[in-house]
Amino acid sequence: MSASCPHNAAINCSDCRMNSLCLPIALELDEVERLNEIVQRGRPLHKDSHVYDIADEFSAIYAVRSGSIKTYSVSDQGVVQVTGFYLPGEIFGMDGIAHTHYISAAVAMETSAICEIPFSRLEELSMAMPSLQRHFFKLMSKEITSDQQLITLLSKNSAEERVATLLLSISARNAKRSLSGVRFRLPMSRADIGNYLGLTVETVSRVFSRFQKQGLLDVDKKEIEITDVSALQELANT
């Protein structure tokens, strides 16, 4: 496996093509090396493999290096709620910081590689490296903002608004990774999209079909091309 392969566990933070997203730009090279020393990289996860489960002891936060991760919670009544989708360069697992355990579960939606960052070591390093601490606070703030955005998303009246907002979110996140913001593959299933957005699978499929007929999208299973960005933005009220 070559060093450039995104699944390669031998790669380090300074070489990683995702470092501009999950690492602070302010970190100096020697600081990146110190962070790299505490990061653990295991074998690639297969689809449907768990990173951690609900109520597992909180010990680390994680960064997606390749692939994609889904988080979900389960209510006391046994109802599963998808709570987030994480793409390369994004951090997850921070829901356990305020607890002694994770309050959600994280599972790979496809073959994925992750970096595990032991939280106790990260705390120690953050105290010695103000730039890392500032970046970490920004990550926590972004996570809180994401939670608020989901609440706002679910308060939108129409299924079209919800689906359009999700597609634009994925588009923007792809663009941050220097990938196409208009042509991409959805890593999640229609069922996961429906669960996340509070819609039935049938409704999600109907919305995709409607968007295609209206000339907003070209849809081929999980392959998406946004053909009218401004119309989609108008629909999402962005």
Outline the structure in words.
A hairpin with a 5-residue loop joins strand 4 (69-74) and strand 5. The protein folds into two domains: 19-134, Jelly Rolls, CATH 2.60.120.10; 156-235, Arc Repressor Mutant, subunit A (Orthogonal Bundle), CATH 1.10.10. The model is unreliable at 1-7 (pLDDT under 50). Strands 1-8-3-6 form a four-stranded antiparallel beta sheet. A four-stranded antiparallel beta sheet has the order 2-7-4-5. The chain has 238 residues and is α+β, with helices and mostly antiparallel strands. Helices cover 40% and strands 20% of the residues.
Keywords:
Arc Repressor Mutant, subunit A; disordered N terminus; 40% helix; 238 residues; single chain; Jelly Rolls; alpha+beta; 4-stranded antiparallel β-sheet
Topology (elements, then pairings):
Blueprint: H1 19-22, H2 29-38, E1 40-41, E2 50-52, E3 60-66, E4 69-74, E5 80-86, E6 91-92, E7 105-108, E8 113-118, H3 119-128, H4 130-155, H5 159-176, E9 183-185, H6 190-197, H7 201-213, E10 217-220, E11 223-226, H8 229-235
Antiparallel strand pairs: 1-8, 2-7, 3-6, 3-8, 4-5, 4-7, 9-11, 10-11
Helix pairs in contact: 3-4, 5-8, 6-7
